[in-house]
Write a structure and sequence with these properties.
about 425 residues, 8-stranded mixed sheet, 6-stranded antiparallel sheet, 14 helices
Length: about 425
């Protein structure tokens, strides 16, 4: 019997174990994209998942190989738009030799994807619904064949498996949370800013929640008001020289006349919430491929996103968080966002992603004496808005529904101190 020798087979056989690994879904999807790109091969492999954002139901890029890292989590296509959205809507694979020639094609600023016009989109359909799309791309010199289409269809099964296991883990966490309702639960993370604090969990409001039905004519006045508010805040918090310099650098976004003009133009063309969301997304996609430029532009895009939220909150006359709350963040925050949280007297901040202690936002939190913990696995599985949380920035711990004895111990330590 002849044994088929193909080095790609080992990669294919390893996919189920990779898809079912007990790791964050984002890491699993990225690893699967790497394998798909190597097996085909293809220069670009991306996974879009169906989610909701400030503009409605969208397909959001959740993993990628071949584009700048910052594209992940920022490239979003309205459901049904673009070739990717069309594949999801009709729940059929789409293969094109030249993507730009397709009537559904939609260019995404910042990706430079014109270098890879050969396009194949495979919808990830589960229970009669497209939960996402697997997209692979190549240069025009290597268009996809029918054999490639069949191979992508087979490889897509690993993404189905990854999503199924992620759903199962979420259900198990929810079930455990139900059993533990009212009981103390400890979540491990990494300390970013020292101190212990107690508060109720609170999520950042979305741009849609803040800006929907708001009057866009108040935009320029809101920009001026946010600028004055942040300038006064630096003095109120008594930040050190380094943290103050961090805030001043971040605030340059607000002083940039070109940026202000861009914001006015986007909001005038699209409306307040869609315009602000579009502006934030465009800056997030403007990263260059060089590592140093990526870091600078990534920081700037975080500040642009914060400014968009602050402006929307100013127009809506609604703060981004309430005094005494524990603000939950999915991604690492910029300087202006943590400054605003400190000014609003948030009791603590908890971030799902890892945050470097050397980041400007970390320095601001330490100087403002706001305890913070990052890299908390299962944060959104265990914590719901309104839950009582005790945040221990010294040991990198978050206690959900802390026991009366633990709360009493914290209060006693504060009184004695």
């Amino acid at each position: 019997m002849e044994i088929l020798e193909d080095p790609r087979l080992d990669r294919v056989f390893a996919l189920p174990a990779l898809a079912s690994a007990s790791r964050p879904l984002s890491q699993v999807l990225h690893a699967l994209c790497e394998e798909v790109a190597a097996i085909l091969p293809a220069e670009v492999a991306s996974v879009y998942l169906r989610e909701s954002d400030d503009e409605g139901d969208v397909l959001l890029m959740r993993a990628n190989v071949g584009f700048p890292e910052i594209a992940v989590g920022n490239v979003a296509l309205p459901f049904g738009e673009g070739i990717t959205g069309f594949a999801a809507e009709c729940m059929r694979p789409v293969i094109r030799e030249q993507a730009e020639s397709d009537t559904h094609y939609r260019r995404v600023d910042g990706l430079d994807e014109e270098r890879f016009p050969a396009f194949l989109a495979w919808p990830l359909v589960r229970s009669g619904r497209a939960d996402g799309v697997l997209v692979v791309q190549r240069p025009s010199s290597r268009p996809f064949s029918d054999a490639d289409l069949a191979l992508v269809g087979a490889l897509a099964g690993s993404f189905h498996l990854a999503l199924t296991f992620a759903d199962q883990r979420r259900r198990e966490a929810s079930a455990q949370r139900g059993v533990a309702e009212g009981r103390e639960v400890r979540l491990q993370g990494l300390g970013v800013a020292p101190g212990q604090s107690l508060g109720r969990a609170e999520l950042l409001p979305t741009l849609r929640e803040l800006a929907e039905d708001q009057d866009a004519t108040a935009l320029e006045g809101a920009l001026d008001a946010v600028t004055r508010h942040l300038e006064r805040g630096v003095g109120k918090l008594g930040l050190g020289a380094e943290a103050t310099a961090d805030v001043m650098r971040a605030k340059l976004v607000l002083d940039d006349a070109r940026f202000r003009s861009e914001m006015v133009r986007e909001v005038t063309a699209r409306g307040l919430a869609p315009g602000l969301a579009s502006l934030a997304r465009r800056y997030a996609l403007s990263a260059e491929r060089t590592g140093g430029a990526d870091e600078w532009l990534s920081d700037r895009s975080a500040e642009v996103a914060a400014v968009c939220r602050l402006v929307a909150a100013q127009i809506a006359h609604r703060p981004l968080c309430r005094p005494g709350s524990v603000l939950l963040l999915a991604e690492r925050p910029g300087s202006l966002l943590v400054l605003e949280a400190a000014l609003r007297r948030a009791s603590a901040i908890v971030v799902a992603e890892r945050v470097s202690e050397a980041m400007p936002a970390s320095r601001i939190l330490r100087d403002a004496r706001v305890p913070a913990v990052c890299d908390v696995a299962g944060l959104y599985d265990w914590v719901r808005p309104g839950d009582a949380l005790l945040v221990d920035g010294d040991r990198g711990l978050v206690w959900v529904s802390p026991s009366e004895s633990r709360v009493a111990k914290l209060k006693a330590a504060r009184q004695s101190g």
